């Protein structure tokens, strides 16, 4: 197997920063520093008390007794052989006694001097005006920030960068297609610019209220999820000023040492995946460093009796737990099963096998388990290692687990045969038990619930059309044609779910029940929140077939988003796709910029932009390069370094 070619990072760098955004106050640091000042005052009061106690309490030295701990520190040459009756207590005699008195006197003087100095300093501080104190705190804060930055800049060990092909360009020859691509870029600008104005630093944007938005998956902190998720799309579109703006925010503000409980899966796919893609595309070290810092914070989530990670982890304390709603304290298949790509890259880039071992442990454990009907249930208890409810889905709760089995194989330059086998086995069972054709001839993927097939397909499951197409090449017993066809059928069904609505946008899930086909029935399932899966499938099908219908369907979706989801402050989801007068949900999801607009842009680009034999997209559409690892290990083997 070939060793990956070395590509000079400098060749891929974009020009240095010129105009950064206004730097935001580092509230946490400021708070910490004010607390520090108060602590200083408390400390000096404490010293005063100790000092008083030292002078006014009876002279304990007369008793010639010293605790072992204290004497270890203060009097290193005590003769322990003269022993005491009580262990840990020693008596002092003769010349030692004199030496001890001198030592004690010296210490007393030192404490007196330190105390006076501390008092003087405290008095001086109190004489200062609020402004002066603030300025001092600010100076100290700057110092801390500088130190943190210096630490962050510490380079990680160099590794050969994989062959990065097709990170720019993709200009289509056709004029009409070029215009469509330009329009998608303009939509990205609109989404980004409004987030920049109204939501900067927040996780997401409320485009109608024109303010920041967040959900519990990101914890309680402002982690700039939209910035991290969107950057690689900006890069690919050639929006380099915006890219640098986001990079600067990440450099200055993205901090993972916060007391915040985040979803391990979500921050992995959006943050680690996004940062790694940014690193590979731009060559800027900061992205790699931030990705590794975050990954370290996720590791405590794996401290469970089985090594199956918790769904959530507190970034500061490392305490993990699962979602209250998940079957009897279970972890979720699509969550713990969607870490592989990012974690393999982390081990590759750091030379630290810890990440690789964590995800391989999950795989080995899953391989050993019995599976009802050869299907993987969505729930697994991380304490007992037993399945929870027997529900299986290619949509929510299961989806990207299957995707990552296939992509583990692709990302390993098709050498991870174990992953490919697990994918093939899983897909065969899914086809047998979950995939059906409706009376009207639409192929759909249902959900398995306790031995019964629910004839309902989620928008999330529509990604599977692209997955089947992507996995066609290399499938067992030469079934490539069959899987490409299956992918195309899923794409058609999902297109129907869009086409049968008033807004030409797809519902969250749709039924196949008697006369009802590809239509949502319950009100709670009629919303569209700017999700990407259907467009993602169009793009994969376009790449593999070049059938113009996929570009046409993608354009229909883009126009519908533009017409019904665009508002002056960005893009919003809609609550009912069957109502011709849409009500907005007032959320611009970060995946709209990471995925939906990226897949649309790629759909109207030529195939040489991010070619699929060199890049594998994580489940949040962040492209990661194929690693040619056949002759190496992932454990930091010096041969690769
Ligand atoms: C994205 O965050 C990812 O694609 C994930 O795998 C599931 N779906 C959302 C967007 O719909």
UniProtKB/TrEMBL annotation:
EC number of this enzyme: 3.2.1.-
SUPFAM superfamilies for the chain: Seven-hairpin glycosidases
Species whose genome carries this gene: Neovison vison
Top-level EC class: hydrolase
Keyword Nucleus appears in the UniProt entry: no
Protein name: alpha-1,2-Mannosidase
Membrane disposition: Single-pass type II membrane protein
Regions crossing the membrane: 37-57
Disulfide-bond pairs as recorded: 462-494
Reactions accelerated catalytically: N(4)-(alpha-D-Man-(1->2)-alpha-D-Man-(1->2)-alpha-D-Man-(1->3)-[alpha-D-Man-(1->3)-[alpha-D-Man-(1->2)-alpha-D-Man-(1->6)]-alpha-D-Man-(1->6)]-beta-D-Man-(1->4)-beta-D-GlcNAc-(1->4)-beta-D-GlcNAc)-L-asparaginyl-[protein] (N-glucan mannose isomer 8A1,2,3B1,3) + 3 H2O = N(4)-(alpha-D-Man-(1->3)-[alpha-D-Man-(1->3)-[alpha-D-Man-(1->6)]-alpha-D-Man-(1->6)]-beta-D-Man-(1->4)-beta-D-GlcNAc-(1->4)-beta-D-GlcNAc)-L-asparaginyl-[protein] (N-glucan mannose isomer 5A1,2) + 3 beta-D-mannose; N(4)-(alpha-D-Man-(1->2)-alpha-D-Man-(1->2)-alpha-D-Man-(1->3)-[alpha-D-Man-(1->2)-alpha-D-Man-(1->3)-[alpha-D-Man-(1->2)-alpha-D-Man-(1->6)]-alpha-D-Man-(1->6)]-beta-D-Man-(1->4)-beta-D-GlcNAc-(1->4)-beta-D-GlcNAc)-L-asparaginyl-[protein] (N-glucan mannose isomer 9A1,2,3B1,2,3) + 4 H2O = N(4)-(alpha-D-Man-(1->3)-[alpha-D-Man-(1->3)-[alpha-D-Man-(1->6)]-alpha-D-Man-(1->6)]-beta-D-Man-(1->4)-beta-D-GlcNAc-(1->4)-beta-D-GlcNAc)-L-asparaginyl-[protein] (N-glucan mannose isomer 5A1,2) + 4 beta-D-mannose
Keywords carried by this UniProt record: Calcium, Disulfide bond, Glycosidase, Hydrolase, Membrane, Metal-binding, Signal-anchor, Transmembrane, Transmembrane helix
Cofactor(s) this protein requires: Ca(2+)
List of catalytic residues: 266, 399, 508, 533
Lineage: Eukaryota, Metazoa, Chordata, Craniata, Vertebrata
Task of the protein: Involved in the maturation of Asn-linked oligosaccharides. Progressively trim alpha-1,2-linked mannose residues from Man(9)GlcNAc(2) to produce Man(5)GlcNAc(2).
